[in-house]
Automatic annotation (TrEMBL):
Keyword line: ATP-binding, Leucine-rich repeat, Nucleotide-binding, Plant defense, Repeat
Record-annotated R13L1/DRL21-like LRR repeat region domain positions: 684-780
Phylogenetic lineage: Eukaryota, Viridiplantae, Streptophyta, Embryophyta, Tracheophyta
Residue span, Disease resistance protein winged helix domain: 465-523
GO biological process: defense response; response to other organism
Protein name: NB-ARC domain-containing protein
MF terms (GO), sorted A to Z: ADP binding; ATP binding
Length: 1028
């Protein structure tokens, strides 16, 4: 059992699979023995056969798992070749076979979690036998013994086919046919609408800001200046770089203009050789050192413009080390030399810019873009007598988003046939569906996609599930990716940010917290996922759904009826179904929901509008792969179906406008649940098993208690409950059910009356020592807790923070015993705390380092009770920081502020204690470790004794304490440690004995101390002195 408990991710790797079967096989056989009986030879033979079956199943699953890395690598390689017909035809079949394998393994992950759950309940042997028999029956009924062989056979077959086509070793990079090499010579006879950008870039190169003339001794370039131009593929970066090189003033300004096409292989040696070749230098040597020296000599007398066209993310490898190596010899060029870089990637531009601001090149403006588009569609004369064609052309501009390459692509297609029918056909077609050459817009944009890591490719391509201009919340997309298994929870946010940096997502113009996909990038997503993602926009699209579809959405503006939606159940392999339709009749739509839950066994993401449905069907439990459920609409549900408890892989319930009055009785069995978002309530668990339960609107006490009682609480390490309005804690909030809990926090739980976690729990003596692991306790603004019956806190606590934490607090703090590892204690805003029992605390807090007592308005004393005054009490041997603030009724600290209690204290703050009359100021010099002493706003402090400063003191502040007349600093000695002295608003302060020592203090500030007799001596070395 313990071996299985230790497996963190079931079926996440091969070892986890072995562990699972090593645990489950003998348990199944034992259960089968009990069911069939023992001793009969037929039964023995049958059980031996079943043992062999399970062994074969384990071995076949092992084969399947070990095949997956090579199959995922194959997908990656074939995608790079998908511009070729054989690869393009084979790719969807490879993906389909791999996804079938992922489904199969996912099903076993479900079974493993189910058994893990049953085991965790400490169920009886009979109950566990039933669970194992159910598992065995499931794999038998589903014929998993043969299914795994079929899936493995498909993978092997498809891999053999790839071998035959030599795709299994295809390079992970594009070939020259897709990305032809560029040069400084432009093929574009006329540039449209870039005059402003061209002028600006030429100026940034320094062409119009310096004189051509120079001396032979002109300085070398102390800093290599680099101007990066970045922007989306096809926007015209190369073209404008070519125009710059062809500019007469640029040619005159630079001695030498060199152009090299970098592409996806940033190799310093190769690039240096290419530059030397263009400078007509010998490049026969392959020694990098010789090449670097030769280039440094070649450029030392030249003002150089080097153009590095089409730089890719390869430049970033090893933190840009290859880039740094490349730049070394170029720094020998004359001052004013420049490097001009074009790239699609902001991160590349940011790496190379060397202090210059990168320049983002955007699409052409509408007026100019129309002129350019006409030249592409109608030829050089750009005229057309057909007004209808012009109308269609202008409508088409919206699709192209100012991209010159997109205009060329579509213009070429339009130019083939100037009939209205042909142009209408192009207009109504998606760009990704149009025939394109390898150098056209979408193949060009597809290259950006190809350079993404495999998981980010899947994250981006699934966005084709949504129509153009759809606005995404970051949290929403992240949840979808997690549900599909593309990324882990802890990596999801970073994955999103990477896609934003790569311009795959853009911040919406209408909302700063939402994102959209540029239309051309959306076309790219549709292109790369055309066999996996499909959007139903018209009823007729139902017949066009690809057989390999995994992600399906319905956005038809109510053009599809409920009966037609049931047809989607034929797509048994669906992983995602998003239905944006809304219907007036719950009676019509309820059967559709039921059909989906019954007929889509592999669905992982399901989102639909509720259309007045008020109860979800029990068939929901059939969707055992389901991770993400989104319910759109604002109904009030009494509860979810009880079968939701069988959804052990469910991670997210997104129902922000719905109300759940309670949850099913066994809802805690949804052990993978990470998030519930509903109206007025949220449940949020992170990858560290830190759970936050929060209410954001008023609900009835009973409803809140019903909600929290049935929430999943599997494996919690941190728990935070916010604005809970119930009077009692859930029954699961106890140490034996939360054995790993390290942190517990209550925020603004105004009605809660007790915290059951600290109530006595009866257990075996062997368990008692390991019952509590709680290290952090925070109770904030829970003013109705009654601590009268409180017994003790867990001895494992390291940090306690209490703020407005209820009543009977004197009894509560008197029970702080055996807290031997407690290091921080903060008590704030307690209205009832009247005394702090030093005899208890000092003997039970040997590790306490920080003590804060703040705004305890009823606190009168901090001392030893009379009953204990004759007994010896301990000391706060580790306390270094003491902070007492705003305790307006506190009278004295004489008992507490003694070296006996505080032998190690370094910082003492006492402030805003209105009734404080007594401090042991004459004993302060005995605090040998004290470094900071602050006494502020204690107006009744009245002492005739001299305040003596210890020799260790570094910072002393006395403010608004009229009762102190004398300060003795002679203990400081001739070389004081004191660095800062601040005395303000001390109307009766008469003397600082030993003012000569004060002269050596770095910072002295004295304000409004009119009786200070040594003032005339202090002014010579006081940074600020004012007696008024």
């Amino acid at each position: 059992m313990e071996t299985f408990k230790a497996v963190a991710g079931v079926f996440a790797d091969i070892n986890a699979c072995r562990d699972f079967f090593g645990w489950v096989t003998p348990c199944i056989l034992a259960a089968r023995h009990q069911l069939l009986g023992e001793g009969h030879s037929v039964v023995q033979h049958r059980i031996l056969a079943e043992r062999e079956q399970i062994r074969h199943l384990e071995n076949n699953i092992w084969k399947l798992q070990t095949s997956m890395p090579k199959m995922l690598d194959l997908i990656e390689r074939v995608e790079w070749q998908s511009h070729k017909k054989p690869a393009a035809e084979l790719l969807p079949h490879i993906k389909d076979a791999v996804y079938d394998a992922e489904d199969f393994l996912d099903e076993f992950k479900y079974y493993a979690l189910r058994l893990k759950l049953e085991e965790s309940k400490n169920s009886s042997e009979e109950h566990m036998h039933a669970a194992f028999l159910e598992f065995f029956k499931s794999i038998n009924d589903c014929d998993h013994f043969n299914k795994v062989k079929e899936i493995q056979g498909n993978l092997d077959h498809i891999h053999y086919q790839s071998k035959d086509l030599r795709l299994h070793k295809a390079p992970l990079r594009f070939d020259k046919s897709i990305r032809p090499e560029t040069s400084a010579f432009t093929e574009v006879p006329q540039i449209f609408g870039r005059e402003k950008e061209l002028k600006h870039l030429v100026q940034k190169l320094g062409v119009h800001t310096s004189k051509r003339g120079r001396t032979d001794d002109e300085a070398r370039a102390t800093e290599l200046r680099v101007l990066p131009i970045f922007g989306m593929g096809g926007v015209g970066k190369t073209t404008i770089a070519q125009q710059i090189c062809d500019d007469a003033k640029v040619k005159e300004h630079f001695d030498c203009i060199i152009w090299t096409c970098v592409s996806d292989d940033f190799d310093a040696k190769r690039l240096i050789k290419e530059i030397l070749e263009q400078m007509e230098q010998d490049t026969t040597s392959d020694n990098l050192n010789n090449l670097v020296r030769k280039l440094a000599c070649s450029v030392e007398s030249k003002k150089l413009l080097l153009v590095l066209d089409d730089m890719w993310g390869d430049t970033l490898r090893n933190g840009g080390a290859e880039w740094d190596k490349f730049c070394i010899p170029l720094r020998n060029a004359l001052q004013g030399s420049m490097i001009l870089v074009t790239t699609r990637f902001y991160e590349v531009a940011n790496l190379v810019c060397a202090g210059m601001k990168s320049y983002e090149l955007e699409g052409l403006q509408d007026v100019v873009f129309w002129e350019f588009f006409k030249s592409c569609a109608f030829g050089s004369n750009r005229t057309c007598n057909d007004l209808e064609l012009e109308r269609i052309g202008k409508d088409m501009l919206q699709k192209l988003k100012g991209s010159p390459l997109a205009a060329k692509t579509v213009g070429r297609l339009l130019q083939r046939d100037l009939s209205r029918a042909h142009w209408e056909s192009i207009l109504t077609s998606e760009l990704w569906m149009l025939e394109q050459d390898v150098t056209d817009i979408l193949p060009a944009l597809r290259l950006s996609y190809m350079y993404l890591p495999p998981l980010l490719k899947r994250c981006f391509s699934i966005c084709a599930l949504y129509p153009k201009d759809h606005k995404f919340d970051k949290e929403f997309l992240v949840d979808i990716w997690i549900a599909q298994g593309y990324v882990e929870l802890q990596d999801a946010s970073l994955a999103f940010d990477e896609l934003v940096k790569g311009s795959f997502f853009q911040i919406s113009a209408k909302s700063n917290y939402q994102y959209v996909i540029h239309d051309l990038m959306h076309d790219t997503a549709q292109l790369v996922s055309k066999d996996e993602c499909f959007i139903i926009k018209h009823a007729s699209d139902l017949d066009k759904i690809p057989s390999t579809v995994r992600h399906l959405s319905v956005f038809t503006n109510e053009n599809v009826g409920c009966s037609e939606l049931k047809r989607l159940c034929n797509k048994k392999k669906l992983w995602s179904l998003v239905c944006n339709e809304s219907y007036n009749s719950a009676k019509d739509f309820s059967p559709v929901i039921d059909c989906w839950f019954k007929g889509l066994p592999r669905v992982r993401v399901l989102s639909f509008r509720l259309s007045r449905v008020r109860q979800l069907p029990e068939s929901m439990g059939n969707s055992k792969h389901l991770r993400y459920l989104c319910l759109l609409g604002s109904p009030t549900f009494r509860t979810l179906p009880s079968s939701v408890c069988h959804l052990h892989l469910l991670k997210t319930i997104e129902a922000k406008d719905c109300v759940f009055q309670t949850f099913p009785e066994c809802f805690s069995d949804a052990i993978s649940l990470q998030k519930i978002k509903s109206k007025g309530f949220s449940y949020d668990k992170d990858h560290c098993n830190a759970l936050r339960i929060q209410w954001t609107s008023d609900q009835s006490v009973q409803m809140m208690e019903n909600q929290i009682e049935r929430l999943p609480h599997w494996n919690l390490q941190q728990l935070r409950i916010v604005r809970y309005g119930g009077e009692s804690c859930p029954s699961w909030l106890c140490p034996n059910l939360l054995p790993r809990l390290r942190s517990l926090r209550f925020d603004e739980c105004m009605n809660i009356q007790c915290i059951s976690f600290f109530e006595p729990y009866i257990c075996d003596s062997d368990q008692a020592d390991n019952l509590h692991h709680l290290e952090v306790l925070e109770i904030l603004k829970c003013d109705n807790i009654n601590w009268q019956s409180f017994v003790a806190l867990p001895t494992s606590l390291r940090t306690i923070e209490l703020c407005d934490f209820g009543y009977s607090t004197d009894h509560f703090v008197s029970c702080f015993r055996d807290l031997i590892v407690l290091t921080e204690l903060e008590i704030r805003s307690s209205k009832c705390l009247s005394s702090i029992p030093l005899q208890v605390w000092s003997s039970n807090f040997p590790s306490l380092e920080k003590l804060h007592i703040v705004r305890c308005e009823s606190l009168i004393s901090v001392g030893v009770s009379e009953a204990c005054s004759s007994n010896r009490v301990g000391a706060f041997t580790s306390l270094v920081v003491l902070y007492i603030f705003g305790c307006t009724k506190l009278l004295s600290l004489d008992e507490f502020l003694t070296p006996d209690y505080l032998p190690a204290v370094k910082d003492i703050w006492v402030a805003c204690c209105d009734e404080l009359t007594s401090l042991p100021v004459d004993r302060l010099h005995s605090f040998t470790c004290l470094q900071m002493l602050v006494i502020k706003d204690c107006p009744k402090l009245n002492t005739q004794m001299v305040l003596t400063l210890p020799s260790s003191l570094k910072n002393f502040e006395l403010e608004s304490c009229p009762g102190i007349e004398y300060i003795d600093n002679r203990q400081l000695g001739s070389t004081p440690a004191l660095e800062k002295l601040k005395l303000t608003h001390c109307s009766t302060l008469r003397s600082i004995s030993g003012s000569i020592a004060v002269a050596q203090v770095e910072s002295v500030y004295i304000l409004d101390c009119p009786e200070l007799t040594e003032a005339e001596y202090l002014t010579a070395f006081t940074r600020w002195y004012d007696s008024n």
